Amino acid sequence: MQDWYQLARGKTDHILEAIKEQPFITELMNGTLPSDVFQFYINQDAMYLAEYKKVLATVGVKCEHVDDTQFFLDSATGIINVENALHQIFLKDNQLAHEPSPTCELYTSYLSRIVTNHSLEEALAVVLPCFTIYKEIGDYIQANQTNKDDNTYQSWIDTYGGEAFAASVSQAIAITNTYAANASVDVLQKMEVAFVKASKLEWMFWDSAYNKEAWKI
Ligand SMILES: Cc1ncc(CN)c(N)n1
After folding, report:
1. If you take atom 4 of ligand 1, which residue's CA is the nearest one?
2. What angle do CA 216, 212, 147 make, to 5 degrees?
3. Residue limits of the Thiaminase-2/PQQC domain (predicted)?
């Protein structure tokens, strides 16, 4: 029998395929992504992660089992520290923006709303695509690129395609599956909605970076 993650992941096949085809991802893989686009992305991502860190800590506090709490608190500090270090490599101080794009604002606000006002199960489901999609895309790029020795963005690619990230992704999936195993049909339905919506927001985040999305007014 399929576990919750396998079922939810199945509902997002089209989103994963669409992400792989995004110009942001194909150009990142080829090493041809314009540096101003990557700068825009990394800058927005730094603002995203500052909020995501708080969201993960909140999920950790809500967990019933101490090991799960520990995992999310460790993730809030450990993973994010790795990503912040990565940002230091790429982020140019003189090109910093301080206003989140509409999509960055939408994604972080959505995460925060679900984690604060909804069930623990939905909170687990909504934070999961941030782990699983980056893992899948990191693996996908590593498996398909032909320029590992000559890609400006290799350290970014290797962060998400690497073993350390894989271990935390597996743990996040396992914890979510455990809580889903005891959830009602109604809660399972809501978990799926949250997982699919956050997956769409991952697609939108790369799309908004590629187009250097601005506020319309
Ligand atoms: C928007 C976004 N989503 C996910 C990740 C991977 N933690 C990230 N750095 N940025």
Report:
1. 130
2. 165
3. 20-211
Distance 66 CA to ligand 1 centre (A): 25
Q: How far is CA 44 from the centre of its chain?
A: 13
pTM of the model as a whole: 0.96
- Quote ipTM for the complex: 0.99
Q: Report the nearest-CA residue for atom 9 of ligand 1.
A: 45
Does ligand 1 lie within 6 Å of residue 134's CB atom? yes
4-210 CATH pick, 3.40.640.10, 2.40.50.140, 2.50.20.10, 1.20.910.10: 1.20.910.10
Q: Residue 153 carries which DSSP code?
A: T
Dist. CA 2 → ligand 1 center (Å): 26
Ligand 1, atom 6, lies closest to the CA of 130
pLDDT for 148-203, tens place per residue?
Answer: 999 999 999 999 998 888 999 999 999 999 999 999 999 999 999 999 999 999 99
